[in-house]
Structure formats: structure tokens, C-alpha cells
Amino acid sequence: MGRGLTSSSPGSLSEPNVYEFGAPYKHMFDDLRHKDPELYKRNGILPMLKRNSSVKLAPQRRQDNADGSFDIVFTFEEKVFDMVIEGSILAFPKLFFLFVCLMLFL
Fold it and tell me: Does the global pTM surpass 0.85?
């Protein structure tokens, strides 16, 4: 999940894994697989990164696209979906977007 200038994912209890926006999902996947493959497979992070890499190269900051040049926003997690809707209403109150949450149940 990303806010500000970085994207983060769960790590140890005291320290999340933090990556700059634009860091490829493959880089994150390889980094976490090197750190603790069983932990990140069990908590769903590695499958999520693999899935995300099939959609796009890297996380993007929606705020960097402030001209509203996108029409559809896809998310894969309900929590992220809610955050995107709330942030979009505040940042772009006069623009219309289609929001789609593709929740996958395994």
C-alpha cells in the first residue's frame, strides 16, 4: 500500500518493507523472497506481488496523475479500494472515475 513517496508491505513486527514508488514489483518480489520466502508466501505478499507484476511494472502514485487523465481505477484489496475512493473524492471532487475492486478469494 502506498502513501506519500513510498510503497510499503508488512515486514517484521517493528519495521515494514518500504520501497520507492516506481520500484518494480519483480525487485520487491526478489527482495522479499531472499529475506524470508516462507513468511512472505504465508502472509500473501509474494503471491500479491506476482499478481501485480502481471498487471503493471511497478506501483504508481495516483496523485502524480493530477490532471485526471485516467478513467478507471482497479484495486485488488477492499482496504485499498476504500482508501482510493476517499482520496479521489477529496483530491478530484469535480471529476468522475470508475472504481473497480477485483477481490480474489483463494
Answer: no
